[in-house]
Amino acid sequence: MEYIPNIIFAIALIVGIGFFARNVKKLSRNIKLGKDVDVSDNKSQRWKNMAKIALGQTKMVVRPIAGLMHVIVYVGFIIINIEVLEIILDGLLGTHRLFSPLGSVYNFLIGSFEVLAFLVIVAVVVFWIRRNVIRIQRFIKPEMKGWPKTDGNMILYIEFVLMILFLTMNAADFQLQQLGAEHYLRAGTFPISQFIVPLLDGLSESSLILVERTAWWLHILGILAFLNYLYYSKHLHILLAFPNTYYGKIKPQGQFNNLASVTKEVKLMMDPDADPFAAPAEEDAAEPEKFGASDVMDFNWVQLLNAYTCTECGRCTSECPANQTGKKLSPRKIMMDTRDRLEEVGKIMDANKGEFVPDGKQLLGDYISHEELWACTTCNACVQACPVSIDPLSIIMEMRRYLVMEQSAAPTELNNMMSNIENNGAPWPYNQMDRLNWVNE
User: Fold this and answer.
1) Per-position pLDDT tens, the chain of length 441
2) Are 337 and 363 in contact (CB under 8 A)?
3) Third-level CATH fold of 264-424
4) Which of 20, 52, 363, 389 has the smallest number of Cβ neighbours within 10 A?
5) pTM for this one?
6) Distance between CA atoms of residues 327 and 53, nearest Å
Protein backbone atom coordinates (compact mmCIF):
# COMPACT_ATOMS: atom_id res chain seq x y z
CA MET A 1 0.00 0.00 0.00
CA GLU A 2 2.82 2.41 0.80
CA TYR A 3 4.03 2.29 -2.82
CA ILE A 4 0.65 3.19 -4.36
CA PRO A 5 1.37 6.98 -4.42
CA ASN A 6 4.70 6.30 -6.16
CA ILE A 7 3.01 4.10 -8.76
CA ILE A 8 0.28 6.69 -9.37
CA PHE A 9 2.93 9.40 -9.70
CA ALA A 10 4.96 7.30 -12.16
CA ILE A 11 1.86 6.70 -14.27
CA ALA A 12 1.00 10.43 -14.28
CA LEU A 13 4.58 11.27 -15.26
CA ILE A 14 4.64 8.73 -18.09
CA VAL A 15 1.26 9.89 -19.42
CA GLY A 16 2.23 13.57 -19.21
CA ILE A 17 5.61 13.15 -20.88
CA GLY A 18 4.18 10.69 -23.42
CA PHE A 19 1.46 13.12 -24.50
CA PHE A 20 4.04 15.90 -24.71
CA ALA A 21 6.30 13.70 -26.87
CA ARG A 22 3.38 12.99 -29.21
CA ASN A 23 2.75 16.71 -29.62
CA VAL A 24 6.45 17.36 -30.24
CA LYS A 25 6.39 14.73 -32.99
CA LYS A 26 3.37 16.39 -34.56
CA LEU A 27 5.04 19.80 -34.29
CA SER A 28 8.19 18.48 -35.97
CA ARG A 29 6.14 16.94 -38.79
CA ASN A 30 4.31 20.20 -39.45
CA ILE A 31 7.51 22.23 -39.55
CA LYS A 32 9.11 19.72 -41.91
CA LEU A 33 6.29 20.34 -44.41
CA GLY A 34 8.37 23.35 -45.37
CA LYS A 35 11.00 23.25 -48.08
CA ASP A 36 14.57 22.45 -47.19
CA VAL A 37 16.97 25.35 -46.68
CA ASP A 38 20.68 25.38 -45.95
CA VAL A 39 21.35 26.97 -42.56
CA SER A 40 24.69 25.29 -41.87
CA ASP A 41 26.71 28.48 -42.37
CA ASN A 42 28.16 30.81 -39.70
CA LYS A 43 27.77 28.33 -36.86
CA SER A 44 29.75 30.43 -34.40
CA GLN A 45 27.58 33.47 -35.10
CA ARG A 46 24.43 31.39 -34.76
CA TRP A 47 25.53 30.07 -31.36
CA LYS A 48 26.29 33.65 -30.28
CA ASN A 49 22.85 34.79 -31.41
CA MET A 50 21.15 32.01 -29.47
CA ALA A 51 23.17 32.74 -26.34
CA LYS A 52 22.61 36.48 -26.58
CA ILE A 53 18.98 36.65 -27.72
CA ALA A 54 17.29 33.49 -26.42
CA LEU A 55 19.33 32.89 -23.28
CA GLY A 56 20.48 36.43 -22.54
CA GLN A 57 17.12 38.09 -23.40
CA THR A 58 18.97 41.10 -24.86
CA LYS A 59 16.15 42.12 -27.22
CA MET A 60 13.52 41.84 -24.49
CA VAL A 61 15.03 44.54 -22.29
CA VAL A 62 14.90 47.10 -25.09
CA ARG A 63 11.55 47.93 -23.49
CA PRO A 64 12.64 48.08 -19.82
CA ILE A 65 9.39 47.49 -17.91
CA ALA A 66 8.10 44.53 -19.93
CA GLY A 67 11.66 43.31 -20.40
CA LEU A 68 12.46 43.27 -16.67
CA MET A 69 9.20 41.51 -15.82
CA HIS A 70 9.81 38.93 -18.52
CA VAL A 71 13.37 38.29 -17.32
CA ILE A 72 12.03 37.64 -13.81
CA VAL A 73 9.49 35.11 -15.09
CA TYR A 74 12.11 33.57 -17.40
CA VAL A 75 14.76 33.20 -14.67
CA GLY A 76 12.10 31.87 -12.29
CA PHE A 77 11.04 29.31 -14.87
CA ILE A 78 14.63 28.13 -15.42
CA ILE A 79 15.82 27.99 -11.81
CA ILE A 80 12.67 26.64 -10.19
CA ASN A 81 13.03 23.63 -12.51
CA ILE A 82 15.71 22.44 -10.06
CA GLU A 83 12.95 22.22 -7.46
CA VAL A 84 10.77 20.38 -10.00
CA LEU A 85 13.55 17.83 -10.48
CA GLU A 86 13.58 17.18 -6.73
CA ILE A 87 9.79 16.78 -6.68
CA ILE A 88 9.92 14.25 -9.53
CA LEU A 89 12.62 12.20 -7.82
CA ASP A 90 10.74 12.36 -4.50
CA GLY A 91 7.59 11.17 -6.26
CA LEU A 92 9.34 8.24 -7.90
CA LEU A 93 11.51 7.19 -4.96
CA GLY A 94 9.09 7.89 -2.13
CA THR A 95 11.56 10.28 -0.48
CA HIS A 96 10.97 13.77 0.90
CA ARG A 97 13.33 16.65 0.08
CA LEU A 98 15.88 14.34 -1.49
CA PHE A 99 18.46 17.11 -1.92
CA SER A 100 18.34 18.24 1.73
CA PRO A 101 21.74 16.60 2.53
CA LEU A 102 23.27 19.49 0.56
CA GLY A 103 22.82 21.44 3.80
CA SER A 104 23.48 25.18 3.52
CA VAL A 105 23.47 24.98 -0.29
CA TYR A 106 19.99 23.45 -0.16
CA ASN A 107 18.83 26.12 2.27
CA PHE A 108 20.09 28.80 -0.11
CA LEU A 109 18.38 27.17 -3.10
CA ILE A 110 14.99 26.87 -1.38
CA GLY A 111 15.22 30.47 -0.19
CA SER A 112 16.12 31.61 -3.72
CA PHE A 113 13.22 29.63 -5.19
CA GLU A 114 10.80 31.32 -2.81
CA VAL A 115 12.06 34.82 -3.61
CA LEU A 116 11.82 34.06 -7.33
CA ALA A 117 8.33 32.60 -6.91
CA PHE A 118 7.22 35.80 -5.18
CA LEU A 119 8.79 37.96 -7.92
CA VAL A 120 7.08 35.83 -10.57
CA ILE A 121 3.73 36.45 -8.85
CA VAL A 122 4.41 40.21 -8.88
CA ALA A 123 5.45 40.11 -12.55
CA VAL A 124 2.39 38.08 -13.54
CA VAL A 125 0.08 40.57 -11.79
CA VAL A 126 1.80 43.46 -13.61
CA PHE A 127 1.41 41.66 -16.94
CA TRP A 128 -2.27 41.01 -16.23
CA ILE A 129 -2.88 44.68 -15.38
CA ARG A 130 -1.10 45.81 -18.55
CA ARG A 131 -3.26 43.49 -20.65
CA ASN A 132 -6.65 43.89 -19.00
CA VAL A 133 -6.72 47.18 -17.09
CA ILE A 134 -4.31 49.56 -18.80
CA ARG A 135 -5.06 47.76 -22.09
CA ILE A 136 -1.83 48.64 -23.86
CA GLN A 137 -2.51 49.34 -27.54
CA ARG A 138 -0.63 46.35 -28.98
CA PHE A 139 -2.73 43.97 -26.87
CA ILE A 140 -6.08 45.21 -28.18
CA LYS A 141 -5.43 44.90 -31.92
CA PRO A 142 -8.10 42.98 -33.90
CA GLU A 143 -5.99 39.80 -34.13
CA MET A 144 -5.78 39.65 -30.32
CA LYS A 145 -9.49 39.05 -29.76
CA GLY A 146 -10.95 35.67 -28.85
CA TRP A 147 -8.55 32.80 -28.20
CA PRO A 148 -5.29 34.84 -28.40
CA LYS A 149 -6.51 37.10 -25.58
CA THR A 150 -7.80 34.14 -23.55
CA ASP A 151 -4.55 32.26 -24.09
CA GLY A 152 -2.46 35.22 -22.92
CA ASN A 153 -4.48 35.49 -19.71
CA MET A 154 -4.67 31.72 -19.22
CA ILE A 155 -0.91 31.39 -18.99
CA LEU A 156 -0.79 34.18 -16.40
CA TYR A 157 -3.39 32.39 -14.29
CA ILE A 158 -1.49 29.09 -14.54
CA GLU A 159 1.81 30.68 -13.51
CA PHE A 160 0.13 32.49 -10.61
CA VAL A 161 -1.54 29.33 -9.30
CA LEU A 162 1.64 27.23 -9.66
CA MET A 163 3.65 29.74 -7.61
CA ILE A 164 0.93 29.96 -4.93
CA LEU A 165 0.86 26.16 -4.69
CA PHE A 166 4.64 26.06 -4.34
CA LEU A 167 4.62 28.58 -1.49
CA THR A 168 1.65 26.88 0.22
CA MET A 169 3.43 23.52 0.02
CA ASN A 170 6.52 25.04 1.61
CA ALA A 171 4.51 26.82 4.32
CA ALA A 172 2.82 23.58 5.39
CA ASP A 173 6.15 21.76 5.21
CA PHE A 174 7.78 24.42 7.40
CA GLN A 175 5.00 24.13 9.97
CA LEU A 176 5.35 20.34 10.01
CA GLN A 177 9.09 20.71 10.52
CA GLN A 178 8.42 22.90 13.54
CA LEU A 179 6.08 20.26 14.94
CA GLY A 180 8.68 17.53 14.41
CA ALA A 181 6.39 15.46 12.21
CA GLU A 182 7.76 12.17 10.92
CA HIS A 183 9.61 12.40 7.57
CA TYR A 184 9.57 16.22 7.74
CA LEU A 185 13.22 16.87 8.60
CA ARG A 186 14.43 20.42 9.15
CA ALA A 187 15.65 21.51 5.75
CA GLY A 188 15.46 24.68 3.68
CA THR A 189 14.84 28.32 4.47
CA PHE A 190 11.45 29.88 3.85
CA PRO A 191 11.74 33.69 3.54
CA ILE A 192 8.37 34.07 1.79
CA SER A 193 6.22 31.10 2.79
CA GLN A 194 6.85 31.80 6.50
CA PHE A 195 4.35 34.64 6.15
CA ILE A 196 1.69 32.11 5.06
CA VAL A 197 2.28 29.95 8.15
CA PRO A 198 -0.05 32.02 10.42
CA LEU A 199 -2.91 31.04 8.09
CA LEU A 200 -2.24 27.40 9.02
CA ASP A 201 -2.17 27.91 12.78
CA GLY A 202 -4.55 25.65 14.65
CA LEU A 203 -4.49 22.87 12.05
CA SER A 204 -3.68 19.39 13.29
CA GLU A 205 -0.65 17.51 12.05
CA SER A 206 -2.81 15.31 9.82
CA SER A 207 -4.51 18.39 8.35
CA LEU A 208 -1.14 20.02 7.67
CA ILE A 209 0.07 16.87 5.92
CA LEU A 210 -3.11 16.94 3.82
CA VAL A 211 -2.46 20.57 2.87
CA GLU A 212 1.20 19.89 2.05
CA ARG A 213 0.47 16.74 0.02
CA THR A 214 -2.44 18.35 -1.83
CA ALA A 215 -0.32 21.37 -2.79
CA TRP A 216 2.54 19.03 -3.77
CA TRP A 217 0.35 16.92 -6.07
CA LEU A 218 -1.44 19.89 -7.61
CA HIS A 219 1.87 21.67 -8.19
CA ILE A 220 3.55 18.82 -10.07
CA LEU A 221 0.38 17.78 -11.96
CA GLY A 222 -0.10 21.44 -12.87
CA ILE A 223 3.42 21.55 -14.29
CA LEU A 224 2.76 18.44 -16.40
CA ALA A 225 -0.52 19.97 -17.61
CA PHE A 226 1.29 23.24 -18.39
CA LEU A 227 3.92 21.32 -20.37
CA ASN A 228 1.23 19.82 -22.58
CA TYR A 229 -0.69 23.10 -22.84
CA LEU A 230 2.34 24.69 -24.53
CA TYR A 231 1.62 23.05 -27.89
CA TYR A 232 -1.77 24.76 -28.07
CA SER A 233 -0.46 28.11 -26.84
CA LYS A 234 1.69 30.97 -28.01
CA HIS A 235 3.95 30.04 -25.11
CA LEU A 236 5.48 27.35 -27.28
CA HIS A 237 8.21 29.96 -27.70
CA ILE A 238 9.53 28.87 -24.28
CA LEU A 239 10.95 25.84 -26.11
CA LEU A 240 11.30 27.10 -29.69
CA ALA A 241 13.03 30.43 -29.02
CA PHE A 242 16.38 28.65 -28.80
CA PRO A 243 16.34 26.86 -32.19
CA ASN A 244 14.61 29.84 -33.77
CA THR A 245 17.34 32.29 -32.76
CA TYR A 246 20.00 29.78 -33.84
CA TYR A 247 18.49 29.34 -37.31
CA GLY A 248 17.50 33.00 -37.59
CA LYS A 249 18.56 35.24 -40.43
CA ILE A 250 22.31 35.91 -40.61
CA LYS A 251 22.38 37.90 -43.84
CA PRO A 252 22.09 41.71 -43.72
CA GLN A 253 18.46 42.69 -43.26
CA GLY A 254 18.20 44.40 -46.63
CA GLN A 255 19.41 41.34 -48.55
CA PHE A 256 16.74 39.08 -50.06
CA ASN A 257 17.18 35.52 -51.25
CA ASN A 258 17.30 34.69 -54.95
CA LEU A 259 14.64 32.51 -56.51
CA ALA A 260 15.50 28.81 -56.34
CA SER A 261 14.83 27.96 -59.98
CA VAL A 262 13.88 29.46 -63.32
CA THR A 263 11.20 28.06 -65.60
CA LYS A 264 11.81 27.04 -69.22
CA GLU A 265 9.87 30.07 -70.46
CA VAL A 266 12.07 32.47 -68.55
CA LYS A 267 15.21 30.66 -69.73
CA LEU A 268 14.02 30.97 -73.34
CA MET A 269 13.52 34.69 -72.85
CA MET A 270 17.08 34.89 -71.58
CA ASP A 271 18.42 32.73 -74.45
CA PRO A 272 16.25 33.15 -77.59
CA ASP A 273 18.52 30.84 -79.61
CA ALA A 274 17.86 27.87 -77.30
CA ASP A 275 15.89 24.94 -78.75
CA PRO A 276 12.49 24.90 -76.97
CA PHE A 277 12.02 21.23 -77.92
CA ALA A 278 15.43 20.05 -76.71
CA ALA A 279 15.52 17.50 -73.92
CA PRO A 280 15.96 19.25 -70.58
CA ALA A 281 19.38 19.23 -68.97
CA GLU A 282 19.77 17.01 -65.95
CA GLU A 283 19.55 19.94 -63.54
CA ASP A 284 16.34 21.13 -65.24
CA ALA A 285 14.62 17.74 -65.42
CA ALA A 286 12.67 18.29 -62.21
CA GLU A 287 9.41 20.14 -62.32
CA PRO A 288 10.06 23.87 -61.83
CA GLU A 289 9.28 25.23 -58.40
CA LYS A 290 6.45 27.67 -57.88
CA PHE A 291 7.57 31.28 -57.85
CA GLY A 292 6.92 32.64 -54.37
CA ALA A 293 4.38 31.14 -51.98
CA SER A 294 0.62 30.88 -51.77
CA ASP A 295 0.33 28.29 -48.98
CA VAL A 296 2.37 27.12 -46.03
CA MET A 297 4.00 24.20 -47.88
CA ASP A 298 5.64 26.73 -50.23
CA PHE A 299 7.72 28.26 -47.43
CA ASN A 300 10.93 26.80 -46.06
CA TRP A 301 10.97 25.03 -42.71
CA VAL A 302 12.72 27.93 -40.94
CA GLN A 303 9.83 30.22 -41.86
CA LEU A 304 7.36 27.67 -40.47
CA LEU A 305 9.48 27.41 -37.31
CA ASN A 306 9.19 31.21 -37.12
CA ALA A 307 5.40 30.91 -37.19
CA TYR A 308 5.30 28.46 -34.29
CA THR A 309 7.78 30.57 -32.29
CA CYS A 310 5.72 33.77 -32.45
CA THR A 311 5.14 35.10 -28.93
CA GLU A 312 2.26 37.35 -30.03
CA CYS A 313 3.90 40.16 -28.05
CA GLY A 314 3.03 42.65 -30.80
CA ARG A 315 6.35 44.49 -30.81
CA CYS A 316 6.60 43.95 -34.56
CA THR A 317 3.17 45.45 -35.18
CA SER A 318 3.75 48.40 -32.83
CA GLU A 319 6.94 49.25 -34.78
CA CYS A 320 5.40 48.76 -38.23
CA PRO A 321 5.02 52.14 -40.00
CA ALA A 322 2.24 50.80 -42.20
CA ASN A 323 0.23 49.72 -39.16
CA GLN A 324 0.93 52.99 -37.39
CA THR A 325 -0.60 54.91 -40.30
CA GLY A 326 -3.80 52.86 -40.26
CA LYS A 327 -2.98 50.28 -42.92
CA LYS A 328 -4.42 46.79 -42.55
CA LEU A 329 -0.99 45.16 -42.26
CA SER A 330 0.02 43.63 -38.91
CA PRO A 331 3.24 41.55 -38.98
CA ARG A 332 2.03 39.72 -35.87
CA LYS A 333 -1.16 38.70 -37.69
CA ILE A 334 0.92 37.46 -40.63
CA MET A 335 2.75 35.07 -38.30
CA MET A 336 -0.40 34.03 -36.43
CA ASP A 337 -2.23 33.34 -39.71
CA THR A 338 0.69 31.27 -41.00
CA ARG A 339 0.70 29.20 -37.81
CA ASP A 340 -3.09 28.78 -37.87
CA ARG A 341 -3.05 27.61 -41.49
CA LEU A 342 -0.19 25.22 -40.73
CA GLU A 343 -2.17 23.79 -37.83
CA GLU A 344 -5.19 23.37 -40.11
CA VAL A 345 -3.05 21.51 -42.64
CA GLY A 346 -1.72 19.31 -39.82
CA LYS A 347 -5.24 18.43 -38.69
CA ILE A 348 -6.18 17.46 -42.25
CA MET A 349 -3.16 15.18 -42.36
CA ASP A 350 -4.10 13.64 -38.99
CA ALA A 351 -7.56 12.88 -40.35
CA ASN A 352 -6.17 11.30 -43.55
CA LYS A 353 -3.42 9.03 -42.23
CA GLY A 354 -0.64 11.52 -42.76
CA GLU A 355 -1.67 12.64 -46.24
CA PHE A 356 -2.74 16.17 -47.08
CA VAL A 357 -6.03 16.30 -48.94
CA PRO A 358 -6.60 19.71 -50.60
CA ASP A 359 -9.36 21.57 -48.78
CA GLY A 360 -9.88 24.33 -51.31
CA LYS A 361 -8.18 26.89 -49.11
CA GLN A 362 -4.74 28.44 -48.91
CA LEU A 363 -2.88 30.96 -46.80
CA LEU A 364 -2.99 33.67 -49.46
CA GLY A 365 -6.52 34.97 -49.83
CA ASP A 366 -8.25 32.85 -47.19
CA TYR A 367 -6.06 34.03 -44.31
CA ILE A 368 -3.92 36.90 -45.58
CA SER A 369 -5.33 39.47 -47.99
CA HIS A 370 -3.56 41.17 -50.90
CA GLU A 371 -4.13 44.50 -49.17
CA GLU A 372 -2.09 43.42 -46.16
CA LEU A 373 0.83 42.27 -48.32
CA TRP A 374 1.06 45.39 -50.45
CA ALA A 375 0.90 47.68 -47.41
CA CYS A 376 4.37 46.47 -46.38
CA THR A 377 7.20 48.97 -47.01
CA THR A 378 9.92 46.28 -46.55
CA CYS A 379 11.60 48.49 -43.94
CA ASN A 380 12.54 45.52 -41.69
CA ALA A 381 11.26 47.27 -38.55
CA CYS A 382 9.30 44.15 -37.61
CA VAL A 383 12.38 41.94 -37.98
CA GLN A 384 14.47 44.29 -35.87
CA ALA A 385 11.81 44.49 -33.14
CA CYS A 386 11.17 40.77 -32.70
CA PRO A 387 12.69 39.50 -29.43
CA VAL A 388 13.14 35.95 -30.79
CA SER A 389 14.49 36.60 -34.34
CA ILE A 390 11.28 36.01 -36.31
CA ASP A 391 11.24 37.32 -39.89
CA PRO A 392 7.67 38.25 -40.96
CA LEU A 393 9.05 40.15 -43.96
CA SER A 394 10.33 36.98 -45.63
CA ILE A 395 6.83 35.50 -45.61
CA ILE A 396 5.32 38.73 -46.95
CA MET A 397 7.88 38.90 -49.76
CA GLU A 398 7.35 35.27 -50.82
CA MET A 399 3.61 35.84 -51.17
CA ARG A 400 4.17 39.08 -53.05
CA ARG A 401 6.49 37.21 -55.42
CA TYR A 402 3.73 34.71 -56.05
CA LEU A 403 1.23 37.47 -56.83
CA VAL A 404 3.60 39.18 -59.27
CA MET A 405 5.27 36.21 -60.98
CA GLU A 406 2.52 33.60 -60.93
CA GLN A 407 -0.66 35.65 -61.10
CA SER A 408 0.50 39.01 -62.53
CA ALA A 409 -1.52 40.53 -59.73
CA ALA A 410 0.68 43.46 -58.77
CA PRO A 411 -1.00 46.81 -58.12
CA THR A 412 -1.43 49.06 -61.15
CA GLU A 413 1.13 51.53 -59.86
CA LEU A 414 3.76 48.80 -59.54
CA ASN A 415 3.01 47.37 -62.98
CA ASN A 416 3.35 50.86 -64.49
CA MET A 417 6.66 51.35 -62.72
CA MET A 418 8.03 48.01 -63.97
CA SER A 419 6.87 48.76 -67.51
CA ASN A 420 8.63 52.13 -67.36
CA ILE A 421 11.83 50.48 -66.13
CA GLU A 422 11.62 47.97 -68.98
CA ASN A 423 10.91 50.59 -71.66
CA ASN A 424 12.64 53.69 -70.33
CA GLY A 425 15.30 52.41 -67.96
CA ALA A 426 13.75 54.38 -65.11
CA PRO A 427 10.52 54.27 -63.08
CA TRP A 428 9.22 57.48 -64.67
CA PRO A 429 7.12 57.59 -67.88
CA TYR A 430 9.68 59.60 -69.86
CA ASN A 431 11.81 58.58 -72.79
CA GLN A 432 15.52 58.41 -72.02
CA MET A 433 16.19 61.11 -74.61
CA ASP A 434 13.82 63.46 -72.79
CA ARG A 435 15.13 62.79 -69.31
CA LEU A 436 17.20 65.99 -69.09
CA ASN A 437 14.62 68.32 -70.65
CA TRP A 438 13.93 69.79 -67.22
CA VAL A 439 17.31 71.57 -67.48
CA ASN A 440 15.92 73.74 -70.26
CA GLU A 441 13.22 75.01 -67.96
Assistant:
1) 667 888 999 999 999 999 999 999 999 999 999 999 989 899 999 999 999 999 998 999 899 888 888 888 888 877 777 888 889 998 998 888 888 888 899 899 899 999 999 999 999 999 999 999 999 999 999 999 999 999 999 999 999 999 999 999 999 999 998 888 878 888 888 999 999 999 998 899 999 999 999 999 999 999 999 999 999 999 899 899 999 999 998 887 777 777 654 444 444 444 555 554 454 454 444 445 788 999 999 999 999 999 999 999 999 999 999 999 999 999 999 999 999 999 999 999 999 989 999 999 999 999 999 999 999 999 999 999 999 999 999 999 999 999 998 888 888 888 888 888 888 888 888 887 787 777 887
2) yes
3) Fumarate Reductase Iron-sulfur Protein; Chain B, domain 2 (1.10.1060)
4) 52
5) 0.85
6) 30
